[in-house]
Amino acid sequence: MNNAVILAGGQGKRMKSDIPKPMFKVLGEPMLEWVIKACENAGLSDLCIVKGFMAEYIDEYLNGRYETVLQSERLGTGHAVMQASDFMEKRRNENTLVLCGDAPFIDSDTIKKSLEMHISENNSVTVITAEIDCPKGYGRIVRTQNGISSIVEEKDATDSQREIKEVNSGAYWFRTADLLEYLSQLTQNNSQGEYYLTDTVFIALNKGRNVNAYKSENSDVVLGANDRKGLLELNTIARMAVIDKHLENGVEFTCTDGITIGRDVKIEPGTEILPGTRLLGNTTIGKGCAIGPNCIIEDCVIEDEVKLNYVQAFKSKIDAGVKIGPWVHIRPGSHIKSDVKIGDFVEIKNSTIGEGTAVAHLTYVGDSDVGKKVNFGCGTVTVNYDGIVKSRCEIGDNCFIGCNTNLIAPVKLGKAVYTAAGTTITKDVPDYALAIDRGTVQIKEGYSLRKLKKRIEKA
Ligand code: UD1
Ligand code: CA
After folding, report:
1. For the chain: N or C, fewer Cβ within 10 A?
2. Residues 400-442: pLDDT tens digits?
3. Is 228-435 a domain of CATH 2.160.10.10?
4. Which residue ranges make up each domain of the chain?
C-alpha cells in the first residue's frame, strides 16, 4: 500500500480571490478534484489533503471524503507536507506521493510509471518532471553526469539555470520514512524565506541516497495555474483535448467557439455540436443529434436523433427523435419521451411528456404527467403551486388543450379531453369531454364612436 499527500493550502494571491486556488475550476471541476481523480485512477485511495487558506471551502467540497490536515500559516511547500507528519508516521514503511492541488493535469499513467521507476531503482526520491518551452515560474531540474543534483526555484536560479527547460511538476514519490527525516532538516534559507519541499532532493543526495527524475511523456503534467491567465490557459488546453477526443470518435464540430464539454460526457458518432454549447456533468448523447447553438445540458441522458436549439436542460431524460427549441428550459426531473416537439418559450419542470406530444409555444408544464399525442395550445399554464404546496396535474392521451388554459393542480384530464381557449380548469374532466369556462361575450355596437371619439377624430 502507498499513500498520497495533496497540497492545497496555498492562497494563490495572484488569483485575487477569497477561495483557495485548488478550488478554481477547470472544465467545471475544481483542480483539486482532477488531482484526486488521477490518484484514484492510479489505484491510490489513501489520501491526505493539506488545507490552509479558507480551509472551509475544501472541507465543504470534500464533505469528509478524505482525511485533511490544517496548515495554519503558509510557510511553503515543505511546511505544508510537515502538517501531514502524523498521517505519514502511521505509514512509515510505504511510499508517499506528494502532489500539488493546483496542477490538475497529473495523470494516472505518469503516477504509475514514476512509481515503477521509484521502486525498481530503489530511490529515496523520484521527482516527476517534464520539458516545456516556457519554463518560467517553475523549479528547474539541475542535472550532472551522475543524474539530478538539485531543483532550483525561478527566484533563486542563476541566468544559466533559468535556461533549463526540464521543470519540476511539484509531484514526487518519496520513501515515507525518508521524507519524514528530510522534513525535519529543511530550512528557510532562500529568497522567499519558505520551507521548500524541493530541498529534500539536495538533502537526500547528501545522505548518499538514490534520487532520480521521471520525465513524463505528457508535458502538461507540470502545468499549474498561478493566476487567472494561467487558469484560462489550463481551461483552453483541457477544453480542446476533450473536443479532440470527440472528433476522433466521429462527433462533428464545424466551429468550436464557446463549446465546453466536461470530461465525463459521452457522445455517439454522427452527432453535431454547435457553437456556444456547454455539456456538463454526467451527460450522455446518442447518435445523429444536433445540439446547439447555445445549449447548456447538465446531467442529462439524450437518445438518438434529438435536435436541441437554444435549450437549457438539467437532470432530465430526452428520448429519441425529440425536437426542442428555441429558448426552452427543461428543469430537473423531466422525461421528454420520443418524438415530442417543444417550441419557443416553454418551461418544463419535473414532468413527463408522453410520446408525440406537442408543446409549441409559451407554455409552462410543472409537476405534471402528460400522455401521448397531446396538443398544448399557446399559453397553457399548469398552476402547480398555491404558495404552500406543489401539486401535480395529469393529462391523458390525445388531449387538446386550448390556448391560455390554466390547470389548477391537483387536477386530472381524462383521455382526449378538449379544453376551450381561456378555460381555467379547477376540477377533474372525464374522458372525451369538453371543458369550457367562459363569460358570454356582449357586443355593444357603436360604443367606441362615443368612448373613443377624440382619438378616432385625431387619426
Ligand atoms: C512549486 C515548486 C516548483 C514546481 C511548482 C510546480 C517548491 C518550493 N516549488 O512551486 O519547483 O515547479 O510547484 O507547480 O515546492 N501550498 C501549501 N502551503 C504552502 C505553500 C503552498 O499548501 O505554504 C500548496 C499550494 O496550494 C499549491 C502547491 O502547494 O497547491 C504548490 O505551491 P505554490 O506556491 O504554487 O508553489 P510554486 O511556486 O508553484
Ligand atoms: Ca504553483
Report:
1. C
2. 999 999 999 999 999 999 999 999 999 999 999 999 998 889 9
3. yes
4. 3-222, 228-435
Query: Which ligand minimizes its atom distance to the CA of 225?
Result: 2
In the chain, pLDDT over 90 holds for what percent of residues? Answer: 96
* Alpha carbon distance 245, 261 (integer Å): 11
* DSSP three-state, residue 458: helix
Ligand 1 centroid–CA 196 distance in Å is 9
Structure confidence at residue 439 (pLDDT) = 87
The grid coordinates of residue 165 equal 527547460
Give, using CA atoms, the residue closest to atom 26 of ligand 1.
10
C-beta of residue 104 within 8 angstroms of C-beta of residue 35: yes
This model's pTM is above 0.70: yes
Question: CA-to-CA distance for 27 and 130, rounded, in angstroms?
Answer: 23
Measured from CB, residues less than 6 Å from any atom of ligand 1 are: 7-10, 21-22, 50, 52, 71, 74-77, 79-80, 100-103, 138-139, 151, 153, 167-170, 196-198, 224
Known catalytic membership, residue 361: yes
Domain 3-222 top-level CATH class = alpha beta
Tell me the average pLDDT across 185-213. Answer: 96
Longest dimension (CA), the chain: 109
Q: What is the mean pLDDT of residues 376-394?
A: 97
* DSSP element (H, E) containing 36: helix 31-41
Q: Which residue has the cell 408544464?
A: 365
